[in-house]
Design brief:
With 524 residues, the protein is α+β, with helices and mostly antiparallel strands. The chain has 14 helices and 14 strands. Strands 5-4-3-6-2-1-7-8 form an 8-stranded mixed β-sheet. The protein starts with a helix and ends with a helix.
Length: 524
């Protein structure tokens, strides 16, 4: 065969790869790498969507999760919410097309962004059971609900509608999913049970009813009736733009001049700042954006870095809030001391973010084990890869000994402690598509450590004042139990048998014990 014919033969075998086909062979990239995790991922994606939908329309979330065991390795997952519902034409695409959604280009805090989550669950269900996903959705009390059965055409990455009709549904609005999949249920640190408990902590305005495969019912009551502040969409900040993105923005903008492009397509750029950027780049403010060359785009990037621009606005974020987080922690953790801290907004790569930390100490928490670390990104629990990412580094690189805890090297401290860390951001920097851990950005780690230290200092004061005093009281109580026996022994040794002498010795011993404790207190 000639070299030319070999090239033609290779060309015939080459074809476009559908995103659905890709993830069919690489489902582990989305977190569906083992049966126990598959069940958790399915619940997570559906619940995240329900919470986001309720947040968008300011409905206090009422979510029901019901998992039914069909056989040893097959389950039916039913999730229902009271959100706004989904418009009929969008239902098949949302559930039957990967990389389809409204949040990817939206710079505001959201739980999901990539448009992969729930459609990936549909794909996994289809691969393992061959069953379609059943969807009921209703957008108004005055309308019928739409019922769909959907699968994914993996070669085209398009929805395949298996069934469709309108039905009566006794709900004003909302969405209900029924998904059948191969999976495994177990309790523990990385279980559906733990995910829902942590979700309730990070979303104290939500009510969640959970029925597990063992038919055990758990209800997580809402802690607050106030709805979280709704985040507002912002435009990209100049400090976060990269060359390729800038060139794409210049091509697609509706602005007619470079100056108007800079002021309308970016946040925090006024006319004065735009003129300064153009001047440093050696470009006319009136030049058409589409006429900007790659070399000129690079000059714009360099000039942006040399100019001081105000940090991006932070109304795009919706943190839990210190008071609300503390209320939520008190409901879920039986401790004796709680402290929280919400940092001021900061920026990485031009993206605004807020760090929140909460500590629960003492009570019925385990004294002998390592502290429990709970990680959140945009109110979503991160249960896997516990030792990966910036949160673990922030906790282990903090010195916990001054706060009254034992710590060996750069490890999680040991003691009756729960550590909660939450990142609220318009674009959490996850290390993979599975969204298990946050990347190591210096700005993020710095804010986490500062928040931990602020809470730690208050914890240290509490431990010194209360826990140490409690331990001393226990020592006194223990010693006092032996005073009568000690007094009798001393009396006998001194061959004094009078009861009055024995009582006098008791008073002397108690007085000495009191003086020792006072001396210890003054020394501290």
């Amino acid at each position: 065969m000639t070299q030319k014919s070999e090239a033609h033969a290779l060309a015939k075998r080459q074809r476009e790869i559908s995103i659905s086909e890709f993830f069919t062979k690489n489902r582990h990239l989305l977190g569906f790498d083992k049966p126990t995790r598959a069940l958790l991922m399915a619940v997570k994606e559906a619940v995240d969507n329900s919470l986001d939908a309720c947040d968008e329309t300011k409905n206090l979330p009422e979510i029901r999760v019901d998992i039914k065991k069909l056989s040893e390795d097959r389950f039916r997952l039913i999730i229902e919410d009271n959100g706004p519902g989904i418009v009929k034409s969008q239902i098949p695409k949302i559930f039957g097309k990967l990389l389809y959604g409204s949040k990817f280009h939206t710079l505001k805090q959201n739980r999901g962004q990539q448009g992969i989550g729930i459609s990936a669950v549909v794909l996994y269900s289809q691969l393992t059971t061959g069953k379609p996903t059943k969807i009921i959705s209703k957008i108004s009390p005055n309308k019928l609900a739409h019922y769909y059965e959907v699968q994914i055409d993996t070669q085209k990455n398009e929805p395949k509608i298996v069934g469709e009709k309108t039905i009566e549904w006794q709900k004003d609005s909302g969405t209900k999913l029924e998904i059948e999949l191969e999976a495994k249920y177990q309790k523990g640190k990385q279980s559906v049970d733990e995910y829902l408990k942590q979700t309730a902590v990070a979303n104290p305005h939500a009510e969640i009813i959970y029925i597990n495969p063992l038919k055990e019912r758990e209800k997580y009551e809402r802690v607050v009736n106030e709805f979280p502040k709704k985040p507002v969409e912002i435009k990209p900040h100049p400090y976060g733009v990269e060359l390729g993105n800038l060139m794409w923005m210049l091509e697609s903008t509706k602005a007619r001049t470079l100056q108007s492009f800079l002021t309308t397509d970016f946040s925090r750029v006024g006319s004065g700042t735009a003129k300064e950027i153009c001047k440093k780049a050696g470009l006319s403010v009136n030049k058409k954006p589409r006429d900007i060359t790659p070399d000129e785009s690079n000059k714009i990037i360099k000039s942006i870095k040399e100019i001081k621009i105000i940090s991006p606005p932070t109304d795009c974020l919706s943190p839990i809030g210190s008071e609300t987080l503390e209320k939520s922690m008190k409901k879920e953790f039986d401790a004796e001391y709680y402290v929280t801290n919400t940092r001021k907004p900061s920026v990485y790569r031009g993206f605004p973010f807020i760090i929140e930390v909460g500590l629960a100490y003492g009570g019925n928490l385990s004294k002998e084990e390592q502290a429990k670390v709970i990680r959140f990104a945009n109110r979503v629990p991160l249960l896997f890869q516990q030792k990966a990412g910036s949160i673990y580094e922030s906790v282990t690189s903090t010195n916990w000994k001054p706060y009254g805890l034992n710590q060996s090297g750069n490890n999680i401290p040991v003691g009756p402690l729960v550590i909660i860390i939450h990142l609220a951001s318009v674009w959490p920097p996850f290390t993979s598509e599975a969204k298990d851990a946050l990347a190591h950005y210096d700005e993020i780690i710095k804010e986490m450590k500062l928040a931990i230290q602020e809470c730690g200092r208050k914890l240290g004061i509490y431990v010194r004042k209360n826990i140490k005093a409690k331990e001393q009281k226990e020592r006194v109580s223990l010693f006092e139990n032996y005073i009568p026996e000690l007094a009798r022994t001393i009396s006998n040794l001194a061959e004094v048998n009078e009861k009055t002498t024995e009582n006098k010795l008791k008073r002397i011993l108690k007085e000495n014990m009191k003086n020792i404790l006072e001396d210890e207190k003054e020394t501290r």
